[in-house]
Amino acid sequence: MPLTTVVGSSGSGKTTFLNDLNKQSKCVYIRQYHQIRPYLMVSRIPNFDATKLPYWSIYEGEGTANKIPAGGTMAGEFTPGLSGGQRKLLLFELIVQRATQCGQKLLIVLDEPFSGVTDDFVPWIVERLDFLRSNGHNIVLVTNDHVHTLMELADNTITVSAVNRNVVSINQDHTCQREMVLHALSSTGVDYMYPKATQNDLIFFFNVEILSSKAVLGVACFTIFFFALFLVSFWDSQTSSYVLILIAGDIIAFFSVNPYLLSLVDWRNAVTEEAEALVHSSKAMNKLLKTILCALLIFVVCSLEFGMVNAVVSGLEDAKFLLAMFCDTGSTTLPFVVFGLYTTWPHQVCETLALLPFLFLIFFSTTFSPGAGVPVVKELRYLFARFYFWCMVPGAQEYMEGCPENETLNILLMCLTGLGTVFLFVIFVAIKNCLKSTKKAKVVERRDTLQKDAGFQALVEELFGGDAVSSRKQWRQSEIGSKSKKEISDRASVPSPSSPKKQYYEPTANPGDTEVDC
What we know:
Keywords: Membrane, Transmembrane, Transmembrane helix. The chain crosses the membrane at residues 215-235, 241-262, 288-309, 321-342, 354-377, 409-431. This protein is α/β, with parallel strands linked by helices. The chain has 3 domains: 3-186, P-loop containing nucleotide triphosphate hydrolases (Rossmann fold); 199-418, no CATH class; 436-504, no CATH class. The protein is 56% helix and 7% strand. The strands form 2 sheets. The protein has a 7-stranded mixed beta sheet, sandwiched between helices. Strands 3-4 form a two-stranded antiparallel ribbon. β8 (167-170) and β9 form a beta hairpin. α3 packs parallel to α4 (122-134) and α8 (215-233) runs antiparallel to α9. 36% of the residues are buried.
């Protein structure tokens, strides 16, 4: 399979071209500034031999090979480790090993593989590129560095231009519709098939997210410190202060896990890009495991809150109050999990939407001023777990308006409203997926239509197989089959008052300078 370079001036859309290729194809993708969790220990990456890295002998000599993390910055925290160039070499070697292990013919997309890499590693990269190509993998890459070296190695060159973004130049002798070229490139890729999830995947997640990451330890330290202050501040409280004590405990619980949850957007982006580079088996599985970890953290914090509340005041020892604390805290913290992990929205949007349940609880639950509010607004109290919680608290339930008479029904409604935001989000995702599947069906239909086109078939042959001259002849024949030779000749000529007419396959300076040939 060939190696194809995408070239063009700065701002011409080279990276955009690769991003579009990644969206519509089953490809392995390394971005120009690819993210990887900084605290991920290189030696713990599953099925990866780090000794093949050209710089790994340095860490082996220092005795730090088993302790070196990927390094970098995530969620505003810098972790020392590999340099940017070393991380790029790590991801590149990881793809080489994954491609060798799977035995499938992959479409590998690389954005600036030489960026941040010193010249002494260039021969190593070139050798690996040639190895991938010789093993039948289709490689598409963009580079502004060492262009001459890659042009010698490349089988095809695609030139993009900012003048006309709808067409690209193929091998500097004819132009083609951008959409058709993207479909042609994506027609060769197959989805990388990981082995079935095993215990090793769980061990990898545990090693990275609990042993290597300091975030969980930070939550533990914050929670213990402030609940210790809670203990000494509210010690020997009166039963008449139930509500104030519970509000104080809920505030501590919320802010104990909140910093951890705010980092989920950056975590999601890093894990998604790791999956594109085949670091782990599944971003979906990692998101699920992260969701379980977040839920466990929330439950542990609520359990500590339950213990501290009962340490300072008596009368709330029943297990139903532990459930109520979890539903109450979960209603304001789980939105951070679903928005942070299961959307592609930026940090500010996710945080704003996730904070709405917390703010609405203050205004609409009526728990801060029982019975207050205009008639229509007061009815919104039934949407909040805090309302049903307060209907269980001695000394508060007498003031709550409209509490369910049956305790079992009250607990059931409390559990349902505690997960209300999650339920709404699931409905939103279901609707979004339906619309997405409709759009995807149109893309597949368009691709199927293109694949029946003789010009498309000739383009695929030119890019991926057969003699280039032969494929160009077929290209001409496909055009002649739909139009007369005279029409082709007229269209392929570009008149110029100062120079002879350019012929059909003569290289053009810019993809926008001639009409589209395919």
